[in-house]
Amino acid sequence: MTETTPRAQTRVRKRIIVCCDGTWQDGPFYAFVLGQQLTNNQEYPQETVKATLTSWFVRIARTINHEDARYNPPIPQIVFYQSGIGSEKGWYSEYIVGTTGATLGDKVEEAYAFIAHNYMPGDEIFLFGFSRGAYTARMVAMFIGLIGVLDRTDMDHFAGIFLACQKLGKTKDDTEKRTLKTQLHSWTGENSPGKNRTKAPDDNFSVKFVGVFETVGSLGLPQELTHRPGIQNVFGFNDRLLGEHIQYAYQALALNEPRADFDCCKFEQTSLAAQRGQTLSQCWFSGCHADVGGGYRNHDLADITLFWMAANVGDHLSLDYKYLGSLPQPAYPYGEQPPHDPRTGIFALSHKLQRKIPTQTNNVTHETIHASVLQQRTLSEVVDVDIVTHSHLVPPLLPLEDALRKHWASLGPPNSDDTASLQQHVKHIVTHTNTGLATESGQRIHENNWLGRLLHEVTNKLDY
């Protein structure tokens, strides 16, 4: 019998955080494609965007501190950023992989492997994602619920487990289903190696937090282009049901996404998970798919969703509020930025779909409408009536969100009634991204950002 060493007895648990970016999104990327899209929306001239931008999800990853000093001893926080599908250089990656999701399985294995290589019993797991990156994060969470967290030496078997699960999700043959379940039992049983690693006597949850923006399970390629509706069903997983092993789950949803091929995949909570104390919240925001998850140079709406997610995860992760406060560069008054129209280029072929917002409390999906939506001037009459009629679905802002709202005007947007000034301000924002000090490499210096200091003070006043 191996004796427990003093070091093992005193080991501090750590937090493993995986951030999965959306399709075509990478850390630094050149903005000429984005510039063409924004030029179509007549925001600013093409020649102003030949610069390197930073993926919005990279910035999310950078808000996470190396450790949580609110505890003694501090809790280490290890962050893994995963670039989006189709973000690698080359036409094949951009146009074939990006539009077909050909490497989605590889992304799932890569993210899961990072957890497996770093996990020790008692560690906390956090998963974040946008678009197909959100789908990746949710599949990783599903695998943790199914097989636990494998030891790094067992990762040689993961590809076989993945393929067997994929077949099981797709097959309609009962005999094949029984065969596949038998093959998987040594990995999915209650006493399997991975599940034994995630068992804890004082915790019923193996995944601490899942935070996603606009989960897209389909490939997002217009059916009118492929003429093959079945091409979108690449994976047979049903991840609508939120696993009972997940303690907290949050999703930001886009009210103004018109493409049927980008229909969102909501979480659905089971009654048993609710009884175990699981928390689920899915909130509707103004904007299209990339307005909510980040992807436009003018990112007022993405700022609001980011602060919503930060406000909800702040009790469980230590965040750099000074850096977070340096990100907003408002071009419009709070909540008033018009949603972008994503039906440009190849996506002009997409079928249109009006998303349905909640009209009553739902104990399965737990949907709400964000208060910032009430500031929109572009709401359709139907949506406007729904929100007014069902105001109980609009919860109050959390302290961090309210601090952003109160000081939004101080960041520079003009009065929304002054059209000429507003247009000039938007042009200034999108053509002057570095309004503060910067290093030689172009990285912004945010330590002296006044909003960041304010947010830091606000969060320090909260009880943890």
- Distance between the ends: 40 Å
Average pLDDT metric: 77
Low-confidence stretches: 1-8, 24-52, 86-101, 219-234, 425-448
Order of helices and strands: HEEHEHEEHHEHHHHEHEEEHEHHHEHHHH
Task: Give a description of the structure.
- The protein has 464 residues and is α/β, with parallel strands linked by helices.
- Helix content is 37%, strand content 13%.
- It has one domain.
- It has 18 helices and twelve strands.
- The strands form three sheets. An eight-stranded mixed beta sheet has the order 4-5-1-6-7-9-11-12, with helices on both faces. The chain has a two-stranded antiparallel ribbon with strand order 2-3.
- A hairpin with a 6-residue loop joins β4 and β5.
- α5 (104-118) packs across α6, α13 (300-313) runs antiparallel to α16 (399-407) and α16 packs antiparallel against α18.
- The longest helix has 16 residues, at 132-147.
- It is globular, with a radius of gyration of 22 Å.
- Mean pLDDT is 77; it is low at 1-8, 24-52, 86-101, 219-234 and 425-448.
- Residues 14-311 form the T6SS Phospholipase effector Tle1-like catalytic domain.
List key phrases describing it.
disordered N terminus; two-stranded antiparallel ribbon; alpha/beta; DUF2235 domain-containing protein; Tle1-like_cat; single chain; 464 residues; AB_hydrolase_fold
In short:
The protein is an alpha/beta fold. 37% of the residues lie in helices and 13% in strands.
Chain-wise SSE layout:
Blueprint: H1 6-9, E1 15-20, E2 28-30, H2 32-40, E3 52-54, H3 56-62, E4 67-68, E5 75-82, H4 91-100, H5 104-118, E6 124-130, H6 132-147, H7 158-170, H8 174-188, H9 193-198, E7 207-213, H10 223-226, E8 241-242, E9 246-254, E10 268-269, H11 271-275, E11 279-285, H12 289-293, H13 300-313, H14 321-325, E12 367-369, H15 381-389, H16 399-407, H17 419-431, H18 450-460
Parallel strand pairs: 1-5, 1-6, 6-7, 7-9, 8-10, 9-11, 11-12
Antiparallel strand pairs: 2-3, 4-5
Helix pairs in contact: 5-6, 7-8, 13-16, 16-18
